Amino acid sequence: MSETTTIALLLAVFALTAGTVPQFSKRLWERRDHIVTGIVDGVPISMSYRRMLFFHDYLSIWLSLDVVLLTVGVAFVFAAGTVEGDAARQTAYLCATAGLGGGAFVTILFPIWTSYIFSVLRRGEGD
Questions:
Q1: What pLDDT digit, counting tens, does each position of 34-90 carry?
Q2: Section 94-99 average pLDDT
Q3: What's the pTM value of the predicted model, to 2 decimals?
Q4: What is the secondary structure of the chain as a DSSP string?
Q5: What Rg value do the Cα atoms of the chain yield, rounded?
Q6: CA 71 to CA 24: how far, in whole Å?
Q7: Contact partners, residue 83, CB within 8 Å, separation at least 6
C-alpha cells in the first residue's frame, strides 16, 4: 500500500472517530443538565430518577466516551509501529496524540464533574 493511501486511511479512521465525539458529548451534557436541574423536557423529575440517570446513563456515556478515545489513541500508536514511511508514521502519531489527549482530558474532568453532581444530589437541589 502506498504511503498516500495509508495516510488517507489513517485520516479516515480519525475523522470517523472524531465525528462520534460531539454526539457522545451532547448526550453527556444533556444528561448532566437533567441530573443537576432535575428537569427533563420542562417536566420536573424525582430525586430517585435523577440518581438513576446518573448511575445508568451519565456514567455509561462518560465511560464509553473515554474508552473510545483511549482505545483509538492506542490503536494509532500500534498503527504507527507498523506503517511504512515517515509521513504515515507521523500522521499515526498525530492521530494518537489527539485520541490519547482527549481521553486524558475526559479522565481528568470525570472526578470534577462527578463530585459536583454528587454534591447537588446530596443536597437534593432541584426538587
A1: 999 999 999 999 999 999 999 999 999 999 999 999 999 999 999 999 998 999 999
A2: 94
A3: 0.83
A4: --HHHHHHHHHHHHHHHHHHHHHHHHHHHHHHHHHHH-EETTEE--HHHHHHIIIIIIHHHHHHHHHHHHHHHHHHHHHHHH--SHHHHHHHHHHHHHHHHHHHHHHHHHHHHHHHHHHHHHHTTT-
A5: 19
A6: 15
A7: 6, 10, 89, 92
